[in-house]
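hey so i finally got around to running the thing on that chain from the lab meeting. sorry it took forever, my laptop kept dying and i had to restart like 3 times. anyway pasting the input first so we r on the same page abt which one it is
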Amino acid sequence: MILDMTPILNGSATKIPFRYEYTPGEAIAEDIVFPAPVTVSGEVANMAGYMKLTLSTDFSYDTECARCLAPIHKEMHLTVERDVAGEKTLEEEDNDDYLIFGQDGLDLDEPAEELLFVNIPMRHLCREDCLGLCPGCGKDLNEGPCSCAKKKTDPRLAILGQLLQKDPDTESNDISLTEGGATNGSTEE
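ok and heres what got predicted. didnt touch it at all, straight out
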């Protein structure tokens, strides 16, 4: 939405309130679905030549748990304040601290989308202690344990497991050298 800044610029108003619905783009996150448009509201206020935007968003979204894939529904309320300046009032330098408006007015979709993008988490969990899915059988471990073997050995390391097994014919502390005649680490004869 483009907000007409003329009432503040010609002095007929000190505040311009706004309220509209905004449909976020797919750039927010590919695994998030917005069941309804985002409600954007706020105002632009002129305080002795200094303009400030106060923008609030109310929305809900659906996604899934990053560990167990359970559906998640979240509701959020976000607010941001930004300084506003006309494109002719700032010098040519790059100024990210200000929202800049031109002759058409102030684009409110840009700060609304930025607010969503920065504040919606990248990973969602159904609960903090979510156990996730079993990598072997895919069972939801939050519902109980699965029947898979608990300890699986990497087949590449299976030969090392044989070293840990004791052979009943040899003692575990007996070390002997064939040349030199030392037994049990002793150098005496």
